[in-house]
Each structure stands twice: as C-alpha cells, then as structure tokens.
Design brief:
Elements lengths: L2 H10 L3 E6 L13 H7 L3 E8 L4 H16 L5 E3 L3 H9 L3 E8 L11 H7 L2 E5 L21 H13 L2 E3 L5 H10 L23 H9 L4 E3 L3 H4 L5 H16 L4 E3 L3 E2 L2 H10 L10 H4 L8 H10 L4 H19 L8
Helix pairs in contact: 1-13, 10-13
Amino acid sequence: MSESKAEAILQEALVWDNHACMPLRPHDHSFLPQLERLRSMGFDAVTLNIGFGTQSLKEHLAMLDSFHSWLAQHPDRYLVAYTVSDIDRARQEHKLAVLFDIEGMALLDDGDIEPISELRQRGVGWMLVAYNRNNAAGGGCMDSDSGLTAHGQRILREMERVGMIPCCSHSGHRTARDLMAAAEGPVIFSHSNASAVHDHLRNIPDELIRACAVTGGVVGVNGIGEFLGDGTDYAALLLRHIDHIVQLVGPRHVGLALDYCFDRQELVDYLLAKPELFPNMSDIESAVRMAPPEVLPELVEGMQGLGYDEPAIHSVLGGNWRRVAAQVWKPAAIPA
C-alpha cells in the first residue's frame, strides 16, 4: 500500500491505543511530553495506566491527580475523555483524547467498592481483575487460579452500574471464564496476545478469545516482545496475533493496546525488584523489547497487504474500542 493510502486511512479512522504506561511517579511529568509521539503518528486516543498489582487506592488517586494536573496545563493538545463524545470532540479539535485504566482490583481488597464510582467519574475507562497474582477479587494468570470471588462479583456489578468496562488481561483463565459468564455486557482483554501464535502464560487461548467475542468484547493486541514472539519486526509480529484473532472471530473483536512503557528503566527496575510477579519471564531484554507507537503506519500497510478492507482496518485501529465504550460508558460519568 502506498504511503499516501496509509496516511489517508489514519486520517479517516479513529486510532486508539487502549493501554500505555507512563512512569507511576506522582508529579514527575518528565515523560508526558512524549505523548506527542502518539499524536504525531496519528493516534486519536490513548488510555494511560494509573496503577497495577498491589498498589493502594491512595497511590492510584495520586497518579490520577498528577496526570489531570499536567493535562490541564496543555488544553490546546490534550483532552481528558469521559465519554465517546469527548473522544469524537478531541478528534474534531485535533487533540489527543486521554483516559485511564487500572490493572487489578487489589486496590479494593479491603472490601470497600465505593471508590469505583469516583474512579469512573475521573476518567478510568476499564479495570482488570488480577495482575498476574491472586487478589481478593479473583485469580491471576501466574498463580493458582480459584476463580472470580463473591467480592469480585460485587465489584463487577458496581462497575456495570457506573459504566466501567471489565477486563480479563493478566487474570487467570478460570477467573476470566467466570467473569465473562457473570457479565451483563461486553468484556475485554485489554492487552492480551494469542497463545496459539506464541505460547506464554500471559497470552490467551482460542477458547477465551471466542468467549470474549460472544460478550461483544475486544482483545487488544500488545507490543511486548515477551508476548509477541522472537524478533524485532514489530509490525509483522503484531500482525500475526491480529490476523489470528481476525480469522478466529472476525475484525470486530480485535484492537490495539501496545502496552508501551515510555520509561524503559522504570520497567527494568520493577522487573528486577518483583521477580515473583513474572515467574515465566525468559529474560529482561525480551521483557522490555516493545513495539513503539511509530510502528503504526507499517501496521496499517500490513493489514492492507493481508487483504483487509477499509472498514475492517478502521475497526481494528479504534472502532471496536469505541463500540464497546459507547455501550458501557454512561453519561452519569461526566464530571459536574
């Protein structure tokens, strides 16, 4: 496909990276200007992580405060999104829509689910169950998974009430099946690759991909080398996982969630400090081998080369995330 054709598709389509990682250091805004990398490549929306694993509610709220503070200082370039209408408005105003996610329900392990409403009102669009290891809500993919607990079901019901999307990435397979069976609407795997393409505990089997599609959900393909497979041809590696999912359940159930960590050293330090969270990691270099935002044009060309028509490419680039968000998010989440 010609460069002009790829550029035309990127200009026409909503392009949404549904999971990216900035440093989780409140008030350290040194990496946030790199959001311009996403804007310059054609991304219209990005979901930033505000916390994961065993981090406390206080730590999550501190990161929300920090991100909101910096974004408010740059209203000409960025817009915090609470609804799909906000994302549409950001595109019209040539701004990058920014929203937030949480990797794991451990911040609610004390049993109090009231903070879910505040988190949604402050721009958190989705939350997954467990980050690799078990918590009070359910099992992680690198632990002995006993399934979704009664506490996890209470959290799910509250998420549905306030309009927050439930996610099964990093969660155990039994917990994922339980959550999808209990959910009343779409469930996503925000950033999980296909184990049929590359066998890894963090990747998911075809049965879970199919189950996700039955809910109306989306599997977001991530760009982490450990989960993609060997090599550094990131566009080709991403396409292998994308196309496997497309062939399995169609183009309406796959999206992009690169999981790119803008502060590589923070990731290295964390992996070294918390080996118990990553027992199946082959080596540090593989874990921090990541597809950057700049892979986007080549990825578009690759999809066209596989014979995807423009509606299918638009779906994968961001249309599918928008469809799920439009179904789950509620106007009540808009701040007063």
